[in-house]
Each structure stands twice: as structure tokens, then as C-alpha cells.
């Protein structure tokens, strides 16, 4: 998980140790929708009740956005919000755990979601909390790293796996120019993404992700945020 050529931006899996120094988590949270998007529509007479709202935050890095999202949703949903943040880098998880402001509601685990053995810890969390699905699974700016390291079929498998476990799926895809920048930085450090030239989802990758979610996984987009400063949109699918 180390950086290459002393360039903190030359990473293979997107595990930037200083990520939130150049990506303001507070501004990202401002783009999130209100409670009506996060909650399922109810039939007349139904109630959301007061049971906890469970979120899986995939690629949580050091937990800064995870903590802000927890606070944001707790205020808007007016109920207990439980978050499990997972990341592939143990150093980032160690930092997130050490800086956890809400350990009673927020927990972290080092997990590669495409590794079945590692993913058992997520399944254990679900069993302990009697969950068939998470209320929401969030994938903020990580689809590119899955794509670069696992090809088109790996990204499709990733989206399908999480979709099967989520009532609401939140995806913030990186546009193609981000791929090109990541490839340039890694190449400058003397390495490459071996699958980069083989990818079929390329210049319109964000639209391909939306098409796959809607047409193959039968999801409907409920909300699309204004673009971040990196021109990424946070999309909500139910």
C-alpha cells in the first residue's frame, strides 16, 4: 500500500494518506440530499419507526467523511445512525479508529470487499445487527480504483455485490480524466496499471456505470448532486 517515487498521489488503490487535505469533506457533505432520499417511500399508515439506520461506507479512508456523514444523517433522520467504514489500507483504518468521535455508533474494519475471506467481517457485522441489507451503502470516489485494478468485469461484480446488500446505493464515479491522471502519475513513478489499456468502459465510464445499475441491476436513480470541484456527481440509486 506504499506510495511510489515519494509521490503521495502515485498510489495503486487510491489509498491517499492525506486525502482530506486536498478534498474538503465538509463541502462534500453539503452536496448530500435531505432525509427523503435516504429513506424508503412508505405506504399510507406506515412508519419509519425508531430502529437504527445502518450504513456501509466502502473506501472510507481515514474516516473524516464517514464521521461528517454520520453527524449529518443523525440530525436529519432523527434516529440512531450506525456506520461501518471499510478500507483496504490498514494504516488508514488504524487512523480512523484512533480519531473516531462516535465509537458507539461508528466502527471501522480493514476489508477488501472483493476478497471473500476479508468480506466475512462485513457479513459478521450484518449478522450481529440482524441485517438482511444495509439501509445504504456508500461508494464515494472509489469506482475508478476498482476498475483500474479489476477490469470492467471486476467493477461490474463490485457494483452487483454491493447492490445485493443495499436498499440504497450511493455512488460517486470518477470521470475518465481522473483515470488518465492516475495513470500518468503512476507511470511517472515507474509503474503502470496493467489493465488500463484493456478497459472498455472509458470516456463515458460514469454513464456506463449508471446504465449498468439501471438496466442490469434494476435500480432507479433518485438523486444526482451538483458536481464537486473535481466534477464528480454523487448519485443515489434505489
CATH topology: Rossmann fold
| CATH H-level homologous superfamily name | Vaccinia Virus protein VP39
Rg, alpha carbons: 17 Å
**Name of the CATH architecture:** 3-Layer(aba) Sandwich
Total helical elements? 9
- In helices, the fraction of residues equals 40-55%
Gap from first CA to last CA: 33 Å
Strand content: 15-25%
Order of strands in the sheet with the most strands?
3-2-1-4-5-7-6
Q: How many separate structural domains?
A: 1
Specify the CATH class.
Alpha Beta
Summarize the helix and strand pattern as letters.
Answer: HHHEHEHEHEHEHHEE
The strand count comes to: 7
Regarding quaternary structure, what we see is single chain
Describe the largest sheet: 7 strands, mixed
Mean pLDDT comes to 91
